[in-house]
Amino acid sequence: xxxxxxxxxxxxxxxxxxxxxSVLQGIRTISSEELARRxxxxxxxxxxxxxxxxxxxxxxxxxxxxxxxxxxxxxxGIGREWRIIIIGAGKIGTALAQYGGFRQRGFQVVAVxxxxxxxxxxxxxxxxxxxxxxxxxxxxxxxxxxxxxxVPAEEAQAIGERVAAAGLRAILNFAxxxxxxxxxxxxxxxxxxxxxxxLSFALTNREKNGND
Amino acid sequence: xxxxxxxxxxxxxxxxxxxxxSVLQGIRTISSEELARRxxxxxxxxxxxxxxxxxxxxxxxxxxxxxxxxxxxxxxGIGREWRIIIIGAGKIGTALAQYGGFRQRGFQVVAVxxxxxxxxxxxxxxxxxxxxxxxxxxxxxxxxxxxxxxVPAEEAQAIGERVAAAGLRAILNFAxxxxxxxxxxxxxxxxxxxxxxxLSFALTNREKNGND
DNA sequence: ACATGTGAACTGCTTCACAGCG
DNA sequence: CGCTGTGAAGCAGTTCACATGT
Lengths: 212, 212
Hints:
Distance between the termini of chain A: 42 Å
Number of helices of chain A: 9
Shape of chain A: globular
Strand order of the largest sheet of chain A: 5-6-4-3-7-8-9
Strand content of chain A: 15-25%
CATH class of the largest domain in chain A: Alpha Beta
Structural class of chain A: alpha/beta
Oligomer: homodimer
Largest sheet of chain A: 7 strands, mixed
Radius of gyration of chain A: 20 Å
């Protein structure tokens, strides 16, 4: 299979979300034009994105909504259950552990970790917070697929290395540092400070350039 | 000023974070090579990124750490205080409202909104949750700079339109929908489900292609 | 001698435009 | 006739390579 751009995968997620709504509304067929409008892109981009994976549409008609939905789920690999662990039971880690949207989409939180003795042993939403020292052992036993890192910046690299060594191959990193791991580990970064700084930059520049 | 790519602005944030550490450690000078290593990019990329904004380095030496730090803060517009409002007092909104990292970096949460009568009036971390019906009026009075949207997907577009109409020009959108707003409003999206699906895609494809 | 700053070359994503097919 | 699927063209972001300055 040809290498797929990150931006393409992101758009597939967007299309899928809208398609799921459309299925519920009983819509049978949808054009690339309509998908583009809702996804904030162009119809050519939609067709190109989908064409990497097959021919899902009917010329002169559009795409069959239920079939395309199933196909995208399959492409993104969200037909199955993915097991995720959350490392770092701070504010954000806690919110994520309790967030219902994960399980709903096939991502099951199987464990929550922290290093703070005050937090270890406490329970949230059915998850007992475990001691992060046990993580290597636990990963071997529980075989989770994805680690969500919500630890302080200083600890992120070390924890990333440990979960990678234990066999995890996907990390969602909330710590504001760039992780350096073997290339067979896929890392996605979510960095609130960075996003806010991006907005700050945009606002600052708009002011300088007189609003154009 | 030439148009700056989003990817460049993101990297500037990364450089800045590392530079701030370096200042604390008393490091005087840093090379593009070292910045690149820490930022997960190349030295040429670092030099190119910085060159859009000026000549900060000394040939044969590298970049002076304190001066470059100040310059990047200035470029990103984080010398001043930005006033932010959080709309949606659910799990994630609550976590963000209590998150200390914002104020620390110059982003001050000035108000939290929700539409649920049970939540309106309650207090978190010094913020009384206000009724979202008052938001237009409040924005005119409080003049916030950035809105953080943590409302359900169905409500995001309508709320986005309201805050845009009230004069807000920057939105950090956590709802899993693409906002359609006038182009003078800058929107950044943070979408956990999308990131997890990206990891799911990577894991699924690795399995199919036999790990390369 | 060494590391920056930067045009030029390159790579890869996006857009165009139209042939192909229902 | 309408809308998809897709090579070709266009464009933007990255990498190269070296002249430049200290």
